[in-house]
């Protein structure tokens, strides 16, 4: 049956239209997807299993190389993909990576999440006021961070590869912007990247806003910044405080801003994702009547955010809210504990001149204060350190005070000082020190003092640090001490850098100063008087010490609890303030428990930091006069194993101006560091003018954390760094069985990473100036040692050049140089013969590729230091 002509025409037209529509959609889809693919190829980095496993051109994520330019990785072939599917149970590829102009994520080298910085601070240029305030707060609270300067042309890697979970994770838990405008001025692609990155990895944001002359509208956040002239009496919102860890909801907190400081801004928003945290009564331009203004906002959306409308570091609430911002915005990835442990030591019991000692009424007030504190801190008791030889040497009423202390001895916890409050570092003989301690201990036992086990404090912290070995031995013998405290390691300033350490079975905890010394016994004697004392505990330095330290061991003295009893007043005022204004829970624990908590939180503090004992005047005061200050090396020869470090050390000691008790390396920094400073200094003579003391060590690990120890002890030393072609180094040090499996490894072995000389030299150059470092090539040292030794003498600026050609002779049979003394070869070069002619081409190509970028970096370091390139670096094209 035939359709009517008109209907047939309509159907044909309909078919043609359908075909046209389908064709149009296909073409549209093609052109719509093409830019995405182009954009992906331009901005995204395709990381593949094989390349990551081989480590080819993988940028370093070391803490000292934070800013990395990234290339584009090519995708695998189909055959390679099939092979990888078979190994799926063995290895999982990192997910596809993202990038923008300033930031990127990629697989990178696996890093240590426990030691990685967890906070990224983004600033527009190197120094900004808010940026410095943020850095200060993070340092005070020991939060590792990276400061990223947007004026730098390099991209910052934001992710790391978690080898346990076999996936990419964020390196950071939190992003700080020194100002909202720093974020707003980012290019759209950078902002889009950060938002997507933050949503994907649950990374929070903290913004600071300081006022300008006009209103700033933040359209992206639906927030307006309005300049404020003055602000007074702030309040913490009860609703928002439920999200805060430490800040307690409070009304009418006293505060008056400085009109000239311009540190406050009003935050206005109608966005329901944001809740006001802080209010204040503010006045603005052309406005006389104060009005309630929001000064900080807390955002709970897909990205946790906090906006600060102020950055007044002198206002105590800023410090508390800053910690809350860390905890809240990071979703507790940076946990902030609400518990603070407090211990109060009262030193110098029975010690002090007449007129400042305790009376019976003072002892009663001390017991009353302790009882009041126990109502707020369960189980609290003062720790009293006594010196027996000064018992009952005051006035009659003061002697009665001593008797009152003994009558109420069970109220307190007691530990032994020295009997005459003498400084332990002045004892050179351990037996004399033990006799003095036992005399003090016998007094305590005979008078029924409840001596605390395992805890003691040295008068003036003498002998604790710098370490006086006899003190540690005597403490163990007499009191079996396992815990002490000091405020001098590694230095006493700034206070937040005081660290604990462990040595010879004794745990040293940081001790805090609270501004009351033996000379401060009345309110008048306190610097600034009563008002200054109140300020120090009501948000000031003493409060901030408690806030920023999970454990506070405060040092006070007996005389601070007599006269005006300012110490009693100080502790009551501090504890009231903490309970009324914060959610901090104060707790009391024995010193051994505090040590366990401290070193669990900061295991990196277990190793002490040795320093020149007389550099800090306070250290010099408590350094034994029989021990020299300058028996430390001023020349250090370092390098990887078997490149000739011990031999170079040995040959240098034959110079008449180079002093050494031994002609070989001590390996102090790598193997014997815990033997102590006394042990190390006995290995060297006293340094004389125009002479040089030499030491050396071989770097046995790719982990270069120990270099901080080197610089701490030898900051002025000159460094001679000996290295060799990394390919040669690897072939000599990696086992053949290991080399044959390099292609299959997801993490490069230690012996391969140790060939990354550029990383090591870079760390040295961060610690030492370039004129303190000489870099020598092993090839040059082997073939012409006389020239190398002459170069070292010039570098050290030795006035009397020594001609090593007189004592170094070439053995024509072995082709090795030997040092000849009395016609006898004493020490000779140990040259390893190697030849890459028979080396597997694939392995050689892999090693060349692995070391290429690092060798280029090394070459640039040498050229910038005006040092010669060895032959194996001269053939590199540095312009690629």
What does this structure look like?
By secondary structure, this protein is of the alpha/beta class. The termini are far apart. Helix content is 34%, strand content 19%. Mean pLDDT is 84; it is low at 21-96 and 109-114. The chain has a 9-stranded mixed sheet. Strands 17, 18, 19, 23, 24 and 25 form a 6-stranded parallel sheet that branches.
What share of residues are in beta strands?
15-25%
Q: Name the shape in a single word.
A: flat
Structural class based on helices, strands and sheet pairing? alpha/beta
Strand tally is: 33
Cα separation of the termini: 77 Å
Q: Level of helix content?
A: 25-40%
Overall pLDDT metric: 84
Number of helices: 28
Short description:
Helix content is 34%, strand content 19%.
Keywords:
880 residues; alpha/beta; 9-stranded mixed sheet; 6-stranded parallel sheet; 33 strands; flat
